[in-house]
Amino acid sequence: MATYEGTWAYRDRFHETFARTYFRPFGDLAVSSIGVGTYLGDPTDEVDASYRAAIVEALESGINVLDTAINYRHQRSERVVGRAIDESEIDRESVFLATKGGFLPFDGARPDDPGRYVSEEFVAPGIVDRKDLVAGQHCIAPAYIDDQLDRSLDNLGADHLDLYYLHNPETQLRERSREAVYDQLEATFERLERRVEAGDIGAYGVATWDGFRVPAGDPSHLSLPEVLGRAERAAAAVGADAHHFSAVQLPFNVSMADAFTTAAHDGRTALTVASEHDLHVFASASLMQGELAREMPDRVEAELAGETRAQRAINFARSAPAVTSALVGMGSPEHVEENVAAGTFEPMGANAFDAVFE
């Protein structure tokens, strides 16, 4: 698990390489404001090898935030992350490790008959109740998330996760009422509070794609204040002094700035609510899957520091209020070198960031 001593020793080792605000607090931990994302790539041994080399390079270059999910690349991404941590010269206590559960994962490769696989692997053993399964691929019921958290620990070769997300819970809205989804979240938050108490995770949160950034009338909308309220109720139900809902993950970049511009949460934006409640925001899609490395609005780019367009795009995401770390896919050591160098430049100040949207 990441520790105060481990992460601050890591920060002390690298901080002179970077600009002043590169390392940021997560509770009493020190975490890099650029993190490694592991979503993209084919489920092949060759991609595994590239990821492993990239993650080792990142850890040994000043990035100590690793983000993955059990379904990424059919569980291969989690397994590669675990191997890379073991191979790196960096101690586990210095690494902030986050993963997600919600989508039913295949195992290493897509099976010939996905429906049969889901039935035999999850439904028949009682891990998933069919009534909790949406679109044949998504479940956030407590028992299922318990199972997935345990599998993630095994995949990662870890005995503790620093942050565990429920993955895209808005997927449930395809077949369930919003109130039913909130009820399900509350029940699963109770289970996650117990996993915190047991020492399996340090904190939990929700990773979304649409949920927190679309307007309140959108079919995919989830209210962040309501989700926080459900976390408070979950903590009270298990007798915890305070809830451990500590973070949200959502897309944030130059072209997808809805979390800063759309007042979808009782008249406030997602980033405003996060700031008010001391939530950590982990920005996904910081480069919009590479598109922003090729093209960016001139007016915005002119305000950003960095030697390359990719670095400037990363620094835009790092500039937003409440953002603790901007996640970037890094599938090779060459990607790491360019991306980590973004942290040698200061992000935009608050006034300059606000001015971009005027």
Automatic annotation (TrEMBL):
<dbReference type="Pfam" id="PF00248">
    <property type="entry name" value="Aldo_ket_red"/>
</dbReference>
<dbReference type="InterPro" id="IPR023210">
    <property type="entry name" value="NADP_OxRdtase_dom"/>
</dbReference>
<protein>
    <submittedName>
        <fullName>Aryl-alcohol dehydrogenase related enzyme</fullName>
    </submittedName>
</protein>
<dbReference type="InterPro" id="IPR036812">
    <property type="entry name" value="NAD(P)_OxRdtase_dom_sf"/>
</dbReference>
<feature type="domain" description="NADP-dependent oxidoreductase">
    <location>
        <begin position="34"/>
        <end position="210"/>
    </location>
</feature>
<dbReference type="InterPro" id="IPR053135">
    <property type="entry name" value="AKR2_Oxidoreductase"/>
</dbReference>
